[in-house]
Records
---
Amino acid sequence: MNLLIMGLPGAGKGTQGAKIVEKFGLIHISTGDMFRAAIANQTEMGLLAKSYIDKGELVPDEVTNGIVKERLSQKDIAERGFLLDGYPRTIEQAQALDAALSALEIQLDGVINIDVNPESLVERLSGRIIHKETGETFHKIFNPPAAGYDENDYYQREDDKPETVKRRLDVNISQGAPILEHYRKENLVTDIEGNQDIQDVFADIEKALSNLK
Ligand code: AP5
Ligand code: MG
């Protein structure tokens, strides 16, 4: 099964993505995670990406298209299937993805769109904490780690500062609609109500995916 997961920053793409890939054995490809890994490794691409991410802007299409295309052409993708998280984010990226998949003779099976009220997202992002050792995402209030956890074992993302979040939301709201339209025309999109508990969102996604299989 080959899937996209879409939604505004903080909608729950990473949270639901982790559950989906665990349940269905897919490979999770998150462009945001790939950029953050490149930044941590201080590669040339990482340094370039950081200059955009820190401002809440999108990394240029040619860079992003290149890393996704390279990952999709690896052997495990055809064997296990994938969940793309945070890509495509511009209509040019959607076209590049169509071309890459068609060259690889891979078919897209569905697009999960997590629909959330934008007003709730600042609160979600400002309370997000990530476990340093495992990379697992939590929320101080909505999804806290075990009771009595040590705050020093967790970090907050640099781009979760309120100023950057505002820019990220503006950029994604303006770019997102045409991409969804692109996939709606192909009848691939399932809209999921994201304004509910994490487990309830996942139950709805599971239902939608069982209809796909
Ligand atoms: P990326 O890492 O993809 O960030 P994003 O799209 O802004 O999305 P997030 O990861 O912030 O949110 P999420 O939807 O994964 O939410 P999560 O599950 O963590 O991209 C970062 C940057 O990289 C971009 O700004 C851009 O610069 C660059 N980039 C990436 N891809 C690119 C591309 N294709 N092109 C160009 N540039 C690109 O949940 C958020 C919080 O809410 C967590 O704390 C979680 O516990 C909590 N939560 C989740 N679900 C619920 C719920 N149902 N109820 C309550 N709380 C919840
Ligand atoms: Mg994410």
---
Amino acid sequence: MANRKYIVGNWKMNGLQSELSDIADIAAIASSHPTVDAAICPPVTLIAAASSQNAAFAIGAQDCHFSENGAHTGCISAAMIKEAGAGFSILGHSERRADQHETDADVKAKAEAVHAAGLGAIICVGETEEERDAGQAIEIVCGQLAGSFPSGADAGWLTIAYEPVWAIGTGRVPEVSDVAEMHAAIRSKLAELMNGGSEQVRILYGGSMNGGNASELLAVPNVDGGLVGGASLSAEKFGPIIEAAAAA
Ligand code: PGA
């Protein structure tokens, strides 16, 4: 049976208290499409309010530290995001891999930490444009997946997001055939890395997904949903993606 589609909005460093009404509007659309799993990852400052105001809607974090606690100024632990109301965290987004120099080993440790706290994880992988042009995209992405892969992984708590770095926030989207090839490669790699259950792990596509291209992307084999940045910031833009997932 095909996996339920999973549509996750990543608000990145966007959103003040005054934008909480956008999450309420998105949650209302999601509630009318019960066949789709939808979620928003606001900045950490909005997690508590977003989760308490939208009890039936999934709220996630965008990152957390791999340690349980300690001398890590400015960092947030898995238990902290859980207490605030997050059910999961995005981990290893390419912006964090680039800006905060996160390594595969960091991402693996973070995923194990969120799992230990009883939360889910979305691990992001993706190649740069130079790597794709050099014909290395699959090798790079499967290498990131293997290096970031947590012990004890199963579909109950782990999701993978394939996000070509060059497609994020650029309006450029890979050819459908390239998305199909990469998601199939990730599926095979998951089978190698896991002791069964790899078919149930959802693999999201991310990078300039919007209401206009979501139907086509969500119809690609092994695309089980989307990780959406810019087009997740309002119900007007995110609603059509949830609707496309419901129709997929
Ligand atoms: P985008 O971002 O939809 O704005 O391209 C996607 C992401 O970075 O998760």
